[in-house]
Amino acid sequence: MSDTQALFAAYDRLVVENYFIVASSAVLFFDFCLTFTSEVQCVWSRKRFSYTTLIFFLNRYTVLVERVVLLIEILLQTDINEVLYLFADSHTY
Question: pTM of the full predicted structure?
Answer without folding.
Answer: 0.71
